[in-house]
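User: Hey, my collaborator sent me this sequence without any context and asked if I could get a structure. I don't really work with proteins. Can you help?
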Amino acid sequence: MEKKIDLLVNNNVDVNGSLEFWGDMSSYNENLLEFKNSLPEKLNNLAYYKNAKDCTNYAILAHSLKSESKYLGFTKDAEVFLSHELKGKENDIAFIEKNFSNLEQTINNMINLLNKYFNDEEKKVILIADDSNIILNFLEKNIHGKYNIIKARTGNEAIDIIKNNNLYAILLDLNMPNLNGFDVLEYLKSNNLLEKIPIIIITGDDTEETIKKAFNYNVVDVLNKPFTEENINRILTSINNFYERDKI
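Assistant: No problem. I've predicted the 3D structure and written it out in structure-token form, which is a compact way to encode the shape of the chain:
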């Protein structure tokens, strides 16, 4: 499908310069889409490193964003990420905290622009929180075509994402480092979100005690490990049913 190149060019994206690197529009669009899908997770990881005052990992991620943005033609945005990379390397947490809102707005502007470019700005967002890359990748592979996916690997990351995004649903592992799944459920409960967002529990512990405890939070379904594509389709139906109930 013909992409709206003018939309990018009119927003100061150097498409022609990027094509010298990627070679053709097909490769460019493929990498641009992957970049777009990674931005929400990268923003939340940056917020996590900032809050943890982890300047080393903050600088590494800012460097990655700078390089990817530059390769894809977002040269002005790359300058923002460069400044945060350099200050991260200097352990200048004061600069990072003071200017984080500008970095956040830069990334959100990029997301909004790329959503329009790929015509999926209306696509709903699902958070998948699990400390296993295998689980995250398998779920993303089977859900991504229908929804935009944001991934978290700890309970802390999950809560940061919940704070900063309008989520359609949450797939939540119970056993994660730092804060676990029940800690996240407590956060959702204390902020009156359990009745607004359908929660699917991911767990390898199918004991009666654990399942009963999870359903005390009014979760809509449980995805037991190991699971199949059929199981994933079932929980997507459960999510849709959660919203259909309000129409009755």
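In plain terms: The chain is about 60% helix and 10% strand. You can pass these tokens on to your collaborator as they are.
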